[in-house]
Amino acid sequence: MYVVESRGGAIACMLLALFFLGTWPAILTLLERRGRLPQHTYLDYTITNLLAAIIIAFTFGEFGHTNDGKPNFLVQLSQNNWPSVLFAMAGGVVLSLGNLSTQYAWAFVGLSVTEVMTSSITVVIGTTLNYFLDDKINRAEILFPGVACFLIAVCLGSWVHASNAKDNQVKLNKMGDSHMGGKGSLTNGSNAKEGKDLENGTGKVEKAKAGTAGFLIELEGRRAIKVFGKSTFIGLAMCLFAGFCFSLFSPAFNLATNDQWHTLDDGVPHLSVYTAFFYFSCSCFVIAVILNITFLYRPAFNLPQSSIKAYLNDWDGRGWALLAGFLCGFGNGLQFMGGQAAGYAAADAVQALPLVSTFWGVLFFGEYRKSSRRTYILLVGMLSMFIVAVAILMASAGHRKH
After folding, report:
1. CA neighbor of 164 nearest in space, from 116, 224, 211, 218
2. What is the pTM for the complete model shown?
3. How far apart are CA 90 and CA 395, in angstroms?
């Protein structure tokens, strides 16, 4: 079994996890904006998310020789370690619920604000729990100022959303009622056919420039989740719920691998990161499949009803969804590998993922284009506070004694 033991190796795992975990939400957002049902996308995503955990378990978890103190993955599957297994599976359940909430929150408040708010809440609650679970191996005088910076980022994130929503409303008001289409849909006055993927640049219709009212109307016309006319509090409430769920999965995983509450029988070795991650991902998979199949037939937010057959026949964007699952799965695995070595509180530095998500959001989705000066000032302040918080959090990294 391969074990990350050095602080440098742990930080390398965190940085790679940061890129992976910041990229997969952008891919799912892209598919929703192209009109693919989020239930279809998430079912694809969750398959490869589990597959990533299996690959990690049978590679890193099986490297080298096994012994009684550090058994390999397959050996641990037959051991009496069910209390730790249940902690790992509980972490998978709350992560699945959080991910399910964010896939709808992205449509309401945007990729950047969703990731900032959920990640900041995760750090404020989850990092504090992990600090005490890890027997304070992280430096408190550095760690908690970083947590305070994340809390400030939450407030700035909500202000950015409010300011950007106001900017968008002003743009739409200038367009006038003449651009409202029938049956509640919106058009930009062009001859675009319904369902045309304008974001891909296909078709002969001229695309509206990012940040304009025409762009917002085009986006509303083709996206899967219609958000015009809905309360902005829906998206913020989903962000808060998702953040609370995310704040619990890492402490649950910490308990699964280190048994701080002494639930295992004497002589039973702690779960390795790879075994715990396997059980963690299995429970995440089961919850995701149950909920998304339910949403196929009983969809939320006025989405069209679907079916298993329709999902199986929907190949548009499936490759991207499968890639997103791999990125998330390997990202979570790397985060846990780094956390086991340097402390799970420090590993929460991967919650800097909004820095990556915001980059993708601005580059590909036109977020914050042609917004007001106030919005830009708040956005820069939010991201700056986030960068400072992450740097402080990584500086607090300790070294776990095995």
Report:
1. 211
2. 0.83
3. 29
